[in-house]
Design brief:
The chain is mainly α and 431 residues long. It has 17 helices and 9 strands. The relative contact order is 0.10.
Length: 431
């Protein structure tokens, strides 16, 4: 028996005791993130929004098996947000449409939801009227049965049977009325309910998952009361899609107790907020770097390649990597690097090493930086690496590291001063 087959199936219930502590933690992390963002200028905030929306579009599509070109998406987002000096990459009509839907939801989070808006958004996902080569109903609620299945033909496994098509109109009317009404429920909890409720109705022939995540994000925006979105749940769902589908399947076979779903949603959202915090640190450190070296003359290739590493490209800076990224010869890469060493923009990781590698110098002397931090530790948590420390004896620091940086530090290939400079320079007043 499916959830929607129970009488009054949308009278969802959950254990407040099991949810309360997680909800408090999510709200604290939201507040900390917004507090950090208040230290960013408008342009830097806009760039953080653009990066978040880019990842949201890419990963929400990838959950459904659709791989988008991230450079196309990033270019489309930057252009629509009016970000200057962004690298322009021609985008397909499909990418432009999907980005337009995400921005519409972000900018108009506080407007009433309507059937017409939902149908319009869904139609953008399927401009050709086809999904995986099969014609589908576009821009309207489905008019036939919908089964969620997996497996080869003849050996399919049915995971879920959605409400019959004659119920969809009324079920969606109730959903939209609830979505638009004021309720004394945390926006974070409502976001979780919206997501589950919408995919349970499965009102469209395709595109339901993406729309559910968009609608969930709209409620998170209502909670933040901001058109700027700095975190998204899609990237975290995409890390463990199987778990996502397993949770949905179990809850949709339940009796209306959605505690397991809400707990999973809050944990996933918490991971998403912490991921966004790492993105904000990257933006802050990049801004800090360019403020220090804005007057230093560089070639376009040097600037572009440095920006790739400043944006978190996961690789050692070597002449070979530089040549690949800068699309130049190895000799040219060596000259570029030597020039940047002389300008103190790059520093050697281990002087005299047989295969030299380099780090970006965010400023300050190595010993001066290290002396300001105490209780420095590198730890692994939930599949990620984190640097924790105490700055100037009182400020707690917790920054997520790229896996390669953590591994290189553990092998003695990367000095702790370089890690602190890369991940914590925005905290330091370096002259």
């Amino acid at each position: 028996m499916y959830l929607h087959e129970h009488e009054n199936w949308t009278d969802f219930r959950w254990s407040a005791e099991k949810v309360a502590l997680l909800l408090d933690e999510v709200c604290r992390e939201q507040g900390k993130l917004l507090g950090r963002l208040s230290g960013l200028g408008f342009d830097s905030q806009l760039k953080a929004v653009a990066e978040n929306l880019t990842r949201d579009v890419v990963y929400s599509s990838e959950i459904e098996g659709i791989r988008l070109n991230i450079d196309e998406v990033r270019s489309s987002v930057a252009r629509r947000l009016g970000i200057e000096n962004a690298k322009f990459v021609p985008s397909s009509h499909y990418v432009e449409g999907v980005v337009a839907v995400m921005l519409d939801a972000m900018e108009n989070f506080d407007q009433l939801l309507t059937k017409e808006k939902l149908c319009g958004w869904q139609s953008v996902f399927f401009l050709s009227g086809f999904s995986e080569g099969t014609p589908i109903e576009v821009g309207q609620y489905r008019t036939h049965e919908e089964h969620v299945v997996s497996g080869l033909w003849g050996r399919e496994r049915v995971h879920y049977v959605a409400p019959s098509p004659d119920r969809v109109e009324e079920e969606m009317r109730k959903f939209i009325d609830w979505f638009n009404a004021d309720k004394p429920i945390s926006p974070v909890i409502r976001s979780a309910i919206v997501h589950l409720w919408f995919v349970s109705i499965h009102p469209f022939e395709d595109g339901n998952g993406r729309l559910a995540r968009i609608l969930g994000d709209m409620y998170l925006a209502r909670g933040d009361n901001s058109r700027f979105r700095f975190y998204n749940i899609s990237s975290e769902i995409n890390r463990d899609k199987n778990h996502y589908y397993d949770i949905l399947e179990r809850v949709q076979h339940g009796d209306g107790d959605i505690t397991e779903w809400v707990v999973w949603y809050l944990k996933t959202l918490l991971a998403a907020i912490r991921e966004a915090s790492a993105t904000v640190s990257t933006v802050l450190n990049k801004s800090f770097f360019w403020m220090r070296f804005a007057s230093v003359p560089l070639t376009e290739r040097q600037t572009n390649t440095l920006n790739l590493f400043l944006d978190g490209y996961e690789a050692k800076i070597t002449s070979k990597t530089w040549a690949n990224l800068g699309k130049c010869s190895k000799d040219t890469a060596i000259r570029d690097i030597q020039d940047l060493l002389e300008k103190h923009i790059l520093i050697e990781d281990n002087p005299g090493a047989k295969r030299p590698s380099y780090s970006i110098n965010y400023g300050g002397e190595r010993d001066d930086i290290v002396s300001r931090f105490g209780d420095i530790a590198i730890s692994e948590e939930a599949g990620g690496y984190y640097l924790t420390a105490v700055l100037d004896g009182h400020t707690k620091v917790r920054e997520r590291l790229l896996s390669l940086d953590a591994e290189r530090y553990r092998k003695g290939e990367l000095p702790i001063s370089h890690l602190l400079g890369k991940y914590c320079s925005y905290l330091l007043d370096l002259d």
